[in-house]
């Protein structure tokens, strides 16, 4: 009995030791930002700007194998809705086909440009409405100064929104490194 138990433990240890997988690393200035390995989800852009997302099943020989799930709403006999997997797609890519990754949005960087544009547009609209209801000149020097400041704040918000990239391009700054484990 002791021999069978020892044999079982040794088999388990050797199997676990052989389970090392290949890795993909996303690096920025030689600093690892993300690691990709089997069992986690991944999103990336291909050369034709298509966003691919799925779960990594295997990384082997410079190839990335993904599973995509088609999940749809199904209605039950009682009128309630449940989500069900209709089908699974098995995809394979070379890691060299990946050209960009979606950037993680920070709370402050995503809302400040929008708040600047909404606030300045609301201020300008309120200023125009007040000038009309109080019989003031819309082209008066005091009113034009307020509208000019609102236009400047709106332009600042617009430029901040346009200058922010929503992806990390693989190239100069961001590099995708393949680490193959020898077996």
Describe the structure.
Helices cover 36% and strands 36% of the residues. A four-stranded antiparallel β-sheet has the order 3-4-5-6, with no helix packed on it. It has a three-stranded antiparallel β-sheet with strand order 2-1-9, with no helix packed on it. Strands 7-8 form a two-stranded antiparallel ribbon. The model has no long low-confidence stretch (mean pLDDT 82). The two termini are 32 Å apart. By secondary structure, it is α+β, with helices and mostly antiparallel strands. Helix 2 packs antiparallel against helix 3. Strand 1 and strand 2 form a beta hairpin. 7% of the residues are buried. The chain is built from three helices and nine strands, in the order H-E-E-E-E-E-E-E-H-H-E-E.
List keywords for this structure.
alpha+beta, 4-stranded antiparallel β-sheet, about 180 residues, about 35% helix
Counting DSSP H or I runs of 4 or more residues, the number of helices is 3
Total DSSP E strands: 9
Question: What's the Cα radius of gyration?
Answer: 28 Å
Tell me the strand percentage band: 35-45%
Q: How much helicity do the residues have?
A: 25-40%
Instruction: Profile the largest sheet.
Output: 4 strands, antiparallel
Q: From the helix content, strand content and strand pairing, which structural class follows?
A: alpha+beta
Order of helices and strands: HEEEEEEEHHEE
Average pLDDT, to the nearest integer? 82
**Order of adjacent strands in the largest pleated sheet:** 3-4-5-6
Q: For the record, give the distance between the C-alpha atoms at the N and C termini, rounded to a whole number.
A: 32 Å
